[in-house]
Specification:
The chain has four domains: 194 residues, no CATH class; 166 residues, no CATH class; 59 residues, no CATH class; 119 residues, no CATH class. 60% of the residues lie in helices and 7% in strands. The chain is built from 20 helices and eight strands. The strands form two sheets. A five-stranded mixed β-sheet has the order 1-2-3-4-5, covered by helices on one side. A three-stranded antiparallel β-sheet has the order 6-7-8, with no helix packed on it. Helix 5 packs across helix 8.
Length: 576
């Protein structure tokens, strides 16, 4: 694929280094502000925009700047900076009041969405400021060059940091500690690594020929994989009518798996066929097989939609489910568009890739902007869904997921909880305590659907902390999994272990046994596909099977836990 590179000569090193020095000092200033808790660190509405612009604008300038596009690029950069600041300011507003709730989920999702949006926006800015004929091939050129140069510059920073480690260690061996002290001070490390990243970008901007060769190598490898993954996708889809969808949904990963397969197929298609008018990607026979296999991506997308709605009645709309829906919309849009091109253009369908991908990329950029703005805030939509379930009576205040609202929904969730607390007053102290600390499990406040053996079992506080300390824990309260809890010495070391086994067969992948070692609790997996009867044959696991059953152990390479007719085999060499 050939594109017009006229006017694309890189700027002088001094310009790029000047940008890097300014960026490094600005990042250091923001870091120190957070360290000493001074402005703007305690005002997220200002801190988030300053951090976003400080990180994104210099990198964009270093990637897009040439010797001929300075004026136009500066104009475009000002407009982009204003938009970035507004969106980041709104994200910062969602983090207020500061320290009232955790912002980890808010920050991670904002970072990922902002990164993808910035990547898409940058290639359009580069095209608009290039002063050359605009084409889809040019967008592809900018995208893969930006991606590879960013990766290699980051690798250069990693190698540079390892060199600093080696430098300090060598001199420390002969009693010179100054380098060990200086190299890891923030005032040295932040500007230095920022400049190292800029140097990496500057070097690779001079080596675009090598970057293009690497991309051609990557494309050649993926050209070999595309027919294979399409064949696997066709066989997988053809197998589902015989196996049924229940097996797929039982893993709780079915939707993610289908979306991942669809994404990989579409990603490979775009890498291999590029603009659709360059050199033929495959011999005629293979190209025809790929063409007739393309509709399978639509099938995968539709099946993933079934999984997306499968447990909606049970959990309602969450932020994660909204993001899955967002991804589904665009994967489906791509797959349906490609299938339409096959219908319309037959074997010449790649000729439509340029127009199709450009339009969908613009829509995706607009969508990412909207979901990070007040217009389509997934946190507000998720809160509305959860509160609607409460109003309809789908859940009660006792079973309402306060942990999720507090930890995942940022400011909207915080305000909703504060409003609910105000409406309750002091009438229900136990419920207020649950709202204040929704993650804590005690035998009096745990889910009533949990079954204990023995029935008067009291969990150690340290074990409670181990289970509830992270929202990602597979047995944490917000997962709302009914669990059979067994106190038993699984490895006969004289200390009690605690097995947690979900009562629903499709949730068995969460099963774990917690063992105490060196004062800390460590979960070991109880693998779901090892549920067998006494003869080793698979048996269904249901809550009814534990009635009047006394858990016992059976000799094995590691002890087996037997409950009724089911046998759970633990691997004490594997940490979950």
């Amino acid at each position: 694929m050939k594109v017009n590179n006229q006017g694309a000569s890189p700027p002088r090193y001094t310009v790029l280094l000047t940008i890097a020095v300014i960026q490094g000092l600005a990042l250091l200033a923001l870091y120190q502000a957070y360290q000493y808790k001074v402005w703007p660190s305690q005002t997220p509405v200002f801190a988030y925009p300053l951090l976003a612009v400080t990180v994104l604008l210099p990198i964009g300038l270093q990637l897009a700047l040439t010797q001929t596009n300075v004026r136009l690029l500066v104009q475009l950069s000002i407009g982009c900076s204003i938009l970035i600041a507004l969106l980041a300011g709104y994200l910062g507003f969602q983090a207020t009041p500061i320290n009232a709730f955790k912002t980890d989920a808010l920050n991670v999702r904002g970072l990922l969405a902002g990164g993808v949006a910035s990547f898409i926006a940058l290639i359009f800015v580069q095209q608009l400021s290039s002063g050359t004929e605009r084409s889809y091939g040019q967008l592809l050129l900018f995208s893969w060059r930006n991606l590879l140069m960013g990766i290699f510059a980051a690798l250069f920073v990693g190698l540079f940091f390892l060199m600093l480690l080696l430098w300090s260690a060598l001199f420390a061996q002969i009693g010179i500690e100054i380098f060990k002290d200086v190299f890891f001070e923030a005032w040295f490390l932040i500007p230095t690594l920022t400049i190292a990243f800029s140097v990496g970008l500057a070097v690779f901007k001079e080596l675009t020929g090598i970057i293009d060769q690497i991309w051609r190598l990557v494309r050649a490898l993926i050209r070999l994989l595309l027919p294979l993954i399409l064949t696997v996708s066709v066989l997988f889809s053809a197998s589902l009518p015989f196996t049924g969808l229940d097996v797929l949904w039982a893993t709780n990963l079915g939707t993610a798996l289908l979306l991942a397969i669809a994404f990989v197929v579409l990603f490979y298609l775009n890498i291999v066929y590029q603009d659709g008018v360059s050199d033929p990607a495959y011999p005629e026979l293979i190209h025809r097989w790929i063409t007739v296999s393309l509709p399978v991506v639509v099938i995968l997308s539709l099946l993933s939609l079934v999984g997306l709605f499968a447990r909606l009645d049970q959990y309602g709309w969450t932020v994660a489910r909204f993001w899955a829906g967002f991804i589904w919309v665009f994967l489906t849009l791509f797959s349906v568009s490609y299938t339409w091109m096959v219908w319309k253009l037959r074997w010449r369908w790649p000729e439509g890739l340029s127009a199709c991908n450009t339009r969908i990329a613009v829509l995706m950029l607009a969508g990412l902007v909207l979901v990070n703005s007040p217009l389509l805030d997934f946190r507000k939509l998720s809160l509305a869904s959860q509160m609607a379930r409460l109003e309809r009576g789908d859940v009660t205040l006792d079973t309402f997921d306060f942990f999720y609202v507090r930890q995942e929904l940022a400011r909207p969730g915080y305000l909703a909880i504060e409003q609910l607390k105000a409406s309750l007053g002091d009438d229900d102290a136990e419920l207020l305590a649950k709202i204040e600390s929704p993650a804590r499990i005690t035998n009096s406040s745990a889910s009533a659907s949990w079954v204990y053996h023995p029935s008067d079992l009291v969990l150690p506080e340290t074990l409670v902390d181990a289970i509830t300390g992270s929202s990602l824990s597979p047995l944490s309260p917000e997962q709302r999994v009914s669990v059979f809890v067994v106190k038993i010495d699984m490895n006969e070391d004289g200390r009690s272990d605690y097995a947690f086994i979900p009562l629903e067969e499709r949730e068995l992948w969460r099963a774990a046994v917690y063992t105490e070692r060196s004062g800390a609790w460590h979960p070991k997996p109880l693998v779901a596909n090892q549920v067998v009867n006494e003869n080793g044959d698979p048996r269904a696991w249901t809550a009814e099977r534990i009635d009047d059953s006394v858990p016992r152990l059976r000799d094995a390479p590691f002890k087996d836990l037997i409950i009724g007719e089911a046998v759970f085999r633990a691997n004490f060499e594997v940490d979950r």
